[in-house]
Amino acid sequence: MANDVTNNLNNLNLEKCDSAGKEDDEDIVNPWNVVSKSETGVDYDKLIRRFGSSKIDDELIARFEKITGRPAHHFLRRGIFFSHRDMHQLLNLYEAGKPFYLYTGRGPSSKAMHLGHLVPFIFTKWLQDVFNVPLVIQLTDDEKFLWKDLKLEEAISLAFENAKDIIACGFDEKNTFIFSDLTFVGQCPEFYQNVVRIEKSVTFNQVKGIFGFGDSDVIGKISFPAFQAAPAFSTSFPFIFGKSKLPCLIPCAIDQDPYFRMTRDVAPRLGYNKPALLHSVFFPALQGAQTKMSASDSNTSIFLTDTPKMIKNKVNKHAFSGGQATVEEHREKGGNCDIDISYQYLRFFLDDDEKLKKIREDYTSGAMLTGELKKELIDVLQTLVAEHQARRAQITDEVVHRFMALHPLVTKSAT
Ligand code: TRP
């Protein structure tokens, strides 16, 4: 079904969209499927043009640094968060003293989260720290129940378990509210009221255009986008924002953009600002950048539960190499960092710019061998995963309940 998504766009007044002008050789990028034919992965510049978003350029990065007084996160400097919508407007408002809030989320489809799942949360945590703003995190257990072969009780308990990994990223309880849809709808009428407002503003024809739904899709799927849209409106959280309408910033992987094109389309009609967005690239599978990682094939990724030994074996055995076939050939021709997964993973997780630059130079020239590059990655990942595991071990059920309790956050206006 997902392949049809982009061919179906007969949509009315939504922002410029994926399917417009899509040709057969283009990458497939939608919430259910990411496929690229190129070894270097999705062509993100093309995607920006197709989606009609804007590139995160040096000027915007400089603005981040000026306003926050902090160096930009390496995800920004290295183009891992590469695209945005309306960031300048949001920062204009922020500079004029109008606070915003952050909204991100996760679909809890499996107990084991992998490295790629951390990317949006690591970045969101940084945004929360540098802007000192409240954050809401949606766990779409309803979505995963509707799309996957999961019992309702399983989806609910996966949301709870995933919340522990998310909290282990270091979020501040006083400024973070985590909720699961299946529970929150029954706790907060204002959230469901916004859902229904959105449901009344979008026709079947429109969601068909955006998401490719068809006649045999269950009706839960057709209404689900309204549930992912509603947290972008601050009145969905009266215990945090009262009745104030705060601007919203959503960091997410770019495959989630269709949901927020829809959200941005309905926002003005419901009297809200359009949410601003920061889009990330996809985290590549160990086997190469052609696909997203699969939670069901444990060899395509490093899980947050992997032991140091598993990390070492997976990297050595499965990480796609951009090196040459023999040592002699490698010394002579050098390796290709753009397709080498060990190098690509270091771009995400080695924050030392100098060291990364040196590795790139040495690997490209052939001075560094694939085994040596892999060793660098193994060290970085073993440390990262061990530290995550240590933090997660501290997160009891009690802690999760505190994050998920309907509690006020430290909004700027309140301080
Ligand atoms: N649909 C997302 C997923 O499957 C989860 C999600 C809900 C989300 N709200 C979000 C992701 C907001 C990013 C931002 O993972």
Question: Could you describe the 3D structure shown?
Answer:
By secondary structure, the chain is of the alpha/beta class. It folds into two domains: 2-287, Rossmann fold; 298-392, Tyrosyl-Transfer RNA Synthetase (Orthogonal Bundle). 48% of the residues lie in helices and 11% in strands. It contains 20 helices and eleven strands. It has helices at 2-5, 44-51, 58-68, 74-77, 87-95, 115-131, 141-147, 152-167, 181-184, 189-201, 204-211, 219-229, 238-241, 257-266, 308-318, 327-333, 341-349, 353-365, 370-393, 397-404, and strands at 28-30, 33-35, 54-55, 81-85, 101-106, 135-139, 176-180, 248-253, 276-280, 284-285, 288-292. It has a seven-stranded mixed sheet with strand order 3-4-9-8-5-6-7, with helices on both faces. A two-stranded antiparallel ribbon has the order 1-2. Strand 10 and strand 11 (288-292) form a beta hairpin. Helix 3 runs parallel beside helix 5 (87-95) and helix 15 runs antiparallel to helix 19. The longest helix is centred in the last third of the chain and has 24 residues, at 370-393. It starts with a helix and ends in an 11-residue tail after the last helix. Residues 1-21 have low confidence and may be disordered. Bound molecules: tryptophan. Tryptophan is lined by residues 104-107, 138, 140, 143, 228, 250, 252, 256.
